[in-house]
Each structure stands twice: as structure tokens, then as C-alpha cells.
Amino acid sequence: MKDTTTLYQHGTLALLVPGLLAGTLTMAELLRHGDTGIGTGEGLDGELIILDGHPYQVNAQGEVHEVAGDFTLPFANSHYADYQPLMTVLGASQADLNQQIRALAQLDNAFFSVKITGLFTAIRTRAVAKSEPPYQTLAQAAQQQQIFSRGEVEGTLIGYYAPQLYDGIAVAGFHKHFLAADHSFGGHLLDFESVTGEVAVQPFSTLAQHLPIADAAYRQHDFSGDDIVGDVRRAEH
């Protein structure tokens, strides 16, 4: 029986800050912990969204490809989907939507996932081109992101909410990725003007935090001089 109450996370957003971007988990292994999720590839190689067990990468050219099991990641989340309907929205802005989800879900101090399917307008996403060793810091890589936009597109948003208490391990608040229904567009969600569709949530009672302890660079890095929360917040919002 699949465990739908656990959120699996490989790596932390904090380790991306100083440029610890080596791929330390394969997609095949990530999929052993869930059929839904988000992440990024080695060297911040694009943005990933997993739907129904299929992992899709949006690369820096805005192209969408399904990736193989040997594709490696420095950071990712996955879980087994068991979403429960929360509400139907009609022309909701992103700010209003976030507020409504938090008010109705009442899960501010828990990890949960949100899934939104519908019609999005004036949507903007981004993806970062893969960097090679020696890797850039997260702040440097974020400056080279490619931004994509659509006036109107049907698709699915998958996101995770992390409590303020866990800022740095994840990004406090929402972290969302998007994939168009026809797989022609997607990426890390920056913003949208409105969405009309269905909103569902899935709370987690357990966070399974997996760390890349086989990676010497991770084991030896001193994070005390890194602006973890500041750099994560600037890069992810």
C-alpha cells in the first residue's frame, strides 16, 4: 500500500545556495518515493514536474521532455498523490489564491501539496540553463534564468507549501511548477494574472528528508557564511 502521508525530499534548497549542484539522486530512485513532484537537474538543469509517474523537464529553451531514470538531481520533492478537492476558483489572482488556500486548508504549520488544474492567463515561468563544474552559486545561476510567458494556457500546477519553521530546508510558503496540458510550455512558476479551475490539497504528517551524504563537497561545506534564507527567497520568488 502506497504511503500518501509522507513527503519525500532529496537535498535541501540551502545546499543550492553555495552551488552544491551535483546530481546526487537518480530520477528512478526519486520515483520510488512518489508519482508526483517537482525538482531540478544536475547543475540546475531546467525545471522538473512529475505527474502520474511521468517526469518532465522544462529546459532553458522552454522545451518539454520526459527524462530517463538515470537523470540526476541535486534537489527534488515527491509523494504519492492523494489530493482532496478544496475549492473551485473563477478568475482568481495568484495572491488571492494563495490566501484562499491557506484560509481553507488551515495547514500553516504543516507541509502540504497543492494541485491546480484549469485555465491560466498571463502566466510566466522560468528555467535555468545547466551549468558545469565549478558550479555557480544559486544567486549567480538565477540571474541567467530564461523567462517564458503565455497569454492563456490550460495546464496543471503542482506546488508544495512549507511552514516558516522550515525556511531554508525548503522555501517557506509556496514553491510551484507548471506544465501545460499539451506539454508545450512549463517551468518554475513566477506568476499569473488569473486562474479558473479546480484546486486540491494533500497534507503530509511526515517529512522524509534525504541528504546526499555520499557527496564529499556537501559533507565538507561550511554553510555559516551563506545567506541561505535570503538567497533562497530571492531565487525562488
From TrEMBL:
Coiled coil: none annotated. Pathway: Polyol metabolism; (R,R)-butane-2,3-diol biosynthesis; (R,R)-butane-2,3-diol from pyruvate: step 2/3. It catalyses: (2S)-2-acetolactate + H(+) = (R)-acetoin + CO2. Signal peptide: none annotated. InterPro entries: Acetolactate_a_deCO2ase. Its EC number is 4.1.1.5. Belongs to the alpha-acetolactate decarboxylase family. It is an enzyme of class 4 (lyase). Pfam families: AAL_decarboxy. This is Alpha-acetolactate decarboxylase. It comes from Levilactobacillus lanxiensis. GO terms for molecular function: acetolactate decarboxylase activity. Keywords: Acetoin biosynthesis, Decarboxylase, Lyase.
